Amino acid sequence: MKSNQIKRLLTACILSCCISMTAAAENVRLAAVEAPISGAAMEIELWGDRLASGYADDLLLLFKNKEGIIKAAYNPTVKGGYNCMLEMVSVGSEGSQLLLSVAQGNWRRPTEYRIIDFRDYKEIKEIFTGTDNYGVVAQAHLQGDCLKVTMCDGSSSSMQVDCGLLEEITPARRQARAEKLNSLTARDIDGDGQQEVLTVQKITADKKVLADIGAVWKLNADSKWDCSGFTILVAGDIAKGNTINEGCEGDGYTVLPCKIVAPGGEATYPLVAYKENVLLQNKVNDILRQENETYLEKFVSGEADTAFNVLRADKDLLSIQLISGKNNFVHHQVNLDPQTGSVIRLEDILRTEDPDLLPLLNLLNTNDKIEFTEELPAEWYLADKKLCLIVNICGQDEVSCYAIGNLHKFLRDKKWLS
Questions:
Q1: Mind spelling out the 3-state secondary structure of the chain?
Q2: Which residues share a beta bridge with 258?
Q3: Computed from CA positions of residues 152, 158, 164, 170, in that sequence, does the dihedral angle turn out positive or negative?
Q4: Residue 93: its pLDDT value, please?
Q5: First vs last Cα of the chain: how many Å apart?
Q6: Number of other residues whose CB lies within 10 A of the CB of residue 135
Q7: Residues near 154 by Cβ (< 8 Å), separated by ≥ 6?
Q8: Contact indicator for 331, 390 with CB cutoff of 8 Å
Q9: φ, ψ for residue 243 (rounded to 5)?
């Protein structure tokens, strides 16, 4: 084949691919949040071209008044990504700012964060930038079984890496690297009315997490970030099958772990990103933030660490267990209908008014510390074809589990047998 024919064929192929990709992309609303601006309600929307893979490109923020009139538009410096979220924060001395989160892969991968000051529509600007997403680690490397980390202020620390974890990494691949930020939380931890930015970035080797690096960012009077509170949390050899603080893919949604690392401990809490339902995403995350608030307050005060465990995530039930404590742990189950965002209560699953239910539960109960006399507990979860009821006795959570098939007579819907 002649050279010019080959060139024409290659050009045609490239154009065909470009047209196919363009046709596959759909311009959609990816996230939205309400913001009070000068006493008036403002709707901020994130739009982008979403491909069939779920990747969103060409991101655009629209600022609309209550009549839906666009007052301003802004292209963030994030190229694109997945699981986009918007949240109002207050990290400056005046007004509120917009926190934009755009994941760069699945829930294990880093996320791009931007904090945007939009007080002046003519000069919308990012005050937490792409450069800030590289975090606070200047250098990290392995020396034998020790990890040495140098921070952006020049301080260095050396700590031993778990032997079991090192054994999983071949010697030729023991090159430590600091990833970009994996988590960012805005929270007022010093009580001055201005939120700090709490970040976590991972140090990895051969895709294995060696340590989590926590930092506290404070916006000063010169609109510059002061970084402090550096904390290094060395990873352990996690047992296979352990799902604590793990994200997961649900039916049309993704559970995302958000982490805070501080000198006194760590807190990990869940948020949920929906693929195609912005309003449902906001509703579910509002509930999760409310349910987590008490536990995060205890973490900030140094009383307890927090964690979570996804017990079930499908089209019928999103069940997340929130865990709080230091030595003794309290477990709180949040059971949601992922199709509506409504809280599911035990009486929605079982005919709790049936007088035969309590006697049967006591008969089948294998935990002699629990007895159901007048009513069922508020804490429960349904997973692995078992209904588990949790009762706190003298500060200790006691659990009694039942095969859901044994309770079929009392089920309001037979779908729970699946």
A1: CCHHHHHHHHHHHHHHHHHHHHHHCEEEEEEEEEEEECCEEEEEEEEEEECCCCCEEEEEEEEEECCCCEEEEECCCCCEEEEEEEEEECCCCCCCEEEEEEECCCCCCCEEEEEEECCCHHHCEEEECCCHHHCCEEEEEEECCEEEEEECCCCEEEEECCHHHHHCCCHHHCCCEEEEEEEEEEECCCCCCCCEEEEEEEEEECCEEEEEEEEEEEECCCCCEEEEEEEEEECCCCCCCCCECCCEECCCEEEEEEEEEECCEEEEEEEEEECCCHHHHHHHHHHHHHHHHHHHHHHHCCCCEEEEEEEEECCCCEEEEEEEECCCEEEEEEEECCCCCCECCHHHHECCCCCCHHHHHHHHCCCCCCCCCCCCCCEEEEECCEEEEEEEECCEEEEEEEEHHHHHHHECCHHHHC
A2: 269
A3: positive
A4: 81
A5: 60
A6: 23
A7: 138
A8: yes
A9: -110, 5
Strands 248-249 vs 80-89: parallel, antiparallel or unpaired = unpaired
Q: What phi and psi, each to the nearest 5 degrees, are found at residue 21?
A: -65, -40
Contact between residue 268 and residue 247 where contact means Cβ atoms under 8 Å apart: no
The span from the CA of 315 to the CA of 251, in Å, is 5
Q: Which two tokens stand for residue 358?
A: 């309590």
Return the number of other C-beta atoms located less than 10 Å from residue 321's C-beta: 23
Cα-based distances in Å from 151 to 86, 229, 231, 415: 29, 11, 10, 53
Tokens in use for 177?
């690297």
Give the whole-angstrom CA distance, residue 235 versus residue 242.
14
**Average pLDDT along the chain, 418 residues, taken 10 residues at a time:** 46 46 76 85 95 95 94 96 97 92 96 95 95 97 93 95 89 93 97 96 94 97 94 82 91 97 94 96 98 96 96 96 93 97 96 95 93 91 94 90 96 92
* Cα gap 413→249, rounded to integer Å: 25
For the chain, how big is the Rg over CA atoms in Å? 25
Partners of 390 in the beta sheet?
379, 399
pTM value?
0.90
